[in-house]
Amino acid sequence: MEKLFNKIKVMLIISNLEFGGAQRQLVELANNLPHDEFDIMVCSLSQYIPLGTRLDLPGEKVVIIQKKSKYDISVVFRLSKVLRDNKIDVVHAFLFDAEIAARIASTMAGVAVMVGSERNSDYRIKHNQMLAYGLTKKLRDVCIANSKAGAEFNAQELGYPEKHYAVVRNGVDTNRFKAGNGMQLREALGISQDQFVIGMFASFKEQKNHRMLFHAIKDLTSSDRNFRVVLVGEELHGGAQGTTTYVQGIHELVDRLDIRDYCLFVGNQDDIEAYYRICDVTVLPSKFEGTPNVVLESMASGVPVIVTAVSDNDEIVEHGKSGYVVDVGDEEGLSRYLQLLMGDRALSANMGSEARRRAVELFSSAQLASSTGEVYKAALEQRSES
């Protein structure tokens, strides 16, 4: 197909560029798609774009089409004009409202290929979302899921055939996220060099299940007090998904369990790589996931991770080698593995080295971009033949 010998014009569309998993993966993808093959633009449906500073793209390649309200239909027409004016070949959308707008706008603008995303699995899709998905079902050409579990879930819920999906796991910048000396930051945070640091890197929302970690921490205080818990993250922008209420409940639980002296809430951090370097282990006790960015970032930073057995986590983390996998709600198991690592710093270091090796070999940003680019090309080729 003649078009494939020219640069493929791609627009990545997302609801916003806050400090979220989908947002961070969009940045990794935009920065790593080969610029000799792809002409890349990024579009946010919100002016809230703190991660925009991480994009390695010229200013005119980053477009904001402000969604003025929850049901702002005009965003579709404005997006369609941008797609048409820039002669976009492939649209790749992330998150619900961006995907629905992109499906309709891509059709209106005559875009050749519309790519959707699935970032999680085993969650509840709201009635209004199911209605929107159903009405626009035929407007999506392919879906890129970041886990096998996510692809299976999306197919089951939305009724697409297996061939509609491509599984491309998340990628991590292994040059940015790597082992390093965290002594200076520890000192700035008031953490002594001999204290064991447990990190949790997650937005404060129900999915991430901070409560499980806090109950495990309470158990740890009965046998060991020489540790700190560093919590990186905040509620979602504008209190989306009920996160303001969730945060209030979390702080009430911390006080009720009397563990506040062990916990350090540091909010969102742009230099997040520095915070991994002060950790001896990280924990992600999520109720559901896709391929969690923070797990890959921790591994790339040479820090072992304890995760719950959701989605593809047990394929990403080798139990007993690069970290541990526990069932959702198994606070006793989480506490037991934390105590094991706290009592054996050499084991923690060895597991961290194995985690780093695995991240570099299997989950690099280059691999993410290469695999995603191949999906774009295959979809364009299929469209040209149909």
Describe the structure in brief.
By secondary structure, this protein is an alpha/beta fold. The chain has helices at residues 21-32, 74-85, 96-109, 127-135, 148-158, 183-189, 210-220, 243-257, 272-276, 293-300, 313-316, 331-342, 345-362, 365-385; strands spanning 8-14, 38-44, 62-64, 90-94, 113-118, 142-145, 165-167, 196-201, 227-232, 263-267, 281-284, 305-308, 323-326.
Description of the structure:
- It is globular and about 65 Å long.
- The mean pLDDT is 95.
- The longest helix has 21 residues, at 365-385.
- It contains 14 helices and 13 strands.
- With 386 residues, the chain is an alpha/beta fold.
- Helix 11 links the parallel strand 12 (305-308) and strand 13 (323-326).
Question: What attributes characterize this protein structure?
Answer:
386 residues; alpha/beta; Rossmann fold; 2 domains; seven-stranded parallel sheet; 13 strands; 41% helix
List the helices and strands and how they pair.
Layout: E1 8-14, H1 21-32, E2 38-44, E3 62-64, H2 74-85, E4 90-94, H3 96-109, E5 113-118, H4 127-135, E6 142-145, H5 148-158, E7 165-167, H6 183-189, E8 196-201, H7 210-220, E9 227-232, H8 243-257, E10 263-267, H9 272-276, E11 281-284, H10 293-300, E12 305-308, H11 313-316, E13 323-326, H12 331-342, H13 345-362, H14 365-385
Parallel strand pairs: 1-2, 1-4, 2-3, 4-5, 5-6, 6-7, 8-9, 8-11, 9-10, 11-12, 12-13
Structural class: alpha/beta
CATH superfamily of the largest domain: Glycogen Phosphorylase B
Any idea how many domains? 2
Q: Sheet bearing the most strands, described?
A: 7 strands, parallel
Query: What would CATH call the class of the largest domain?
Result: Alpha Beta
Integer average pLDDT: 95
Shape: globular
> Approximately how much beta-strand content do the residues carry?
15-25%
Number of helices: 14
What order do the helices and strands follow?
Answer: EHEEHEHEHEHEHEHEHEHEHEHEHHH
Pick out the low-confidence regions. Answer: none
Number of strands: 13
Kindly report how far apart the N and C termini lie: 12 Å
Widest sheet: strand ordering: 3-2-1-4-5-6-7
Q: Radius of gyration over alpha carbons?
A: 21 Å
Q: Roughly what percent helix? A: 40-55%
The CATH architecture of the largest domain can be given as 3-Layer(aba) Sandwich
At the fold tier of CATH, the topology name of the largest domain is: Rossmann fold
